[in-house]
Amino acid sequence: MPVRRGWSRPRGGAANVTAPRPYGGASQPPVVKDPSFRRSLTLFRAFLKEQDDPEACYSLLARDAVDQVEAYDGSVAGRTVVDVGGGGGYFTEEFRRRGAYAYLFEPDVAELGAKPPEGAVVADGYLLPLRDGVADVTFSSNVLEHVADPQTFLSELARVTRPGGLIYVSFTNWLSPWGGHEWAPWHYFGAERARARYRRRTGRAAKHTLGENLFAVHIGATLRQVRARDDVEVVSARSRYWPFLAEAVVKAPGIREFATWNLLLILRRCPP
């Protein structure tokens, strides 16, 4: 269930960040048990209506994602959360509803929409305008497949996270049924063929181009790269949406490249 955006090269730049107050109040009930068939079906149905009702789709996805963060790291109330590449700010807004001090950093002004969250900053994930160790939680949902240099991007997420802090990273892997984004699942027959089919079917050019704002990221290679790092510890590597045995499917080489759907990495920042 990919979020549609591009992030292929650094743009950087300094920025001043205001401090919006958290909304506070009780958190909403969980979407449903994670993992479960009911949850996967609920999210899939919402995603099918993403074009017609993005508010409902991404609000539901945001609730589900913050539930996952809290399941691994406890309540976010009163904590500093950095949302990197959060688009229209649905995740930032949900973190604030849970009482967090959440900040959105998005490189594409067009992705922010008409009403971005208060304090949103146009900034690139390769060079965040933040001091070291400022975040209790650093959050990145469905961004890594749009990044030309994942290692540099992950290094920046780690840099701005305090020692012991949590890093949430998810991405749609290339061989997932959704790996081609708007032209999936025809990407299995080749990217250019899939893009040409999309143009014929819709009458417009596809938003994503392989090698420009969409990259073929694979589960096995990503796991090896992350586990080799000395600045983060892998707490969990699991499918974000798979309805059962979410961690087990990621342990099966070959099969995981198709069945994982979307890899969720829960990382803990190691002391420098």
From TrEMBL:
The keyword tRNA processing does not apply. GO terms for molecular function: methyltransferase activity. This is Class I SAM-dependent methyltransferase. It comes from Streptomyces machairae. Pfam families: Methyltransf_11. Residues 82-169 form the Methyltransferase type domain. Residues 1-31 are annotated as: Disordered. Keywords: Methyltransferase, Transferase. InterPro entries: Methyltransf_11, SAM-dependent_MTases_sf. GO terms for biological process: methylation.
